[in-house]
Structure formats: C-alpha cells, structure tokens
Amino acid sequence: MSSMTKVGVYTVEDLHAYREARRDWTVQLIDGELIVGPGPGIEHQDVLVELLVRLREAALPGQLPAGRARPLTHDRLESDFS
Asked: For 63, what's the count of Cα atoms within 13 Å in the CB-facing half-sphere?
C-alpha cells in the first residue's frame, strides 16, 4: 500500500507528488491529511483582482512599499489585460 492511499499519514513529499499529478486541483496538507478541491475558477480570479484594486485604493500614501509595482487602477487593468 502506498502512502497516497493511507488516511492521515501524508507527508510534504506526498503533497508535492499529488500536486504534480493534479495541477488543476487545489491540494493542501492539514494534520497529515490531503485536502483536495477544484482549482479556482474565473469568478474567483475576478473577485481577487477587485479585492486587490480596492485594497490598494484604500491604502494611505506611504504605506505601500516604494518601487515595487505601479498602482493598479481600473484604466490600467483594462489596458494591461484586454
């Protein structure tokens, strides 16, 4: 019996091997158990982008690391990703 079929005894190596085999799934190792679910869909990505834009807009000047990336704006998102 391989370690991939045992319950509750998975290792980090098992996690990496499973992730390599199932790149389209989200795989986590929690307390020795592999938690597997579908990868994020396009709706998830849309929400993530919107959240990042709003967080960046809400940040006060000087709170963002200098020189990291130019601020995200709605106009930039449309031009960069269209």
From this structure: 7
- Domain spans, the chain: 1-39, 42-81
What are the strands, taking DSSP E only, across 1-82?
25-30, 33-38
Give CA separation, 71 vs 26, 62, 80, 82, in Å.
29, 12, 12, 18
Q: What tokens does 53 get?
A: 């834009």
Q: Phi, psi at residue 36, to the nearest 5°?
A: -120, 135
12-34 confidence digits (pLDDT tens): 888 888 888 887 788 888 888 88
pTM for this model (two decimals): 0.40
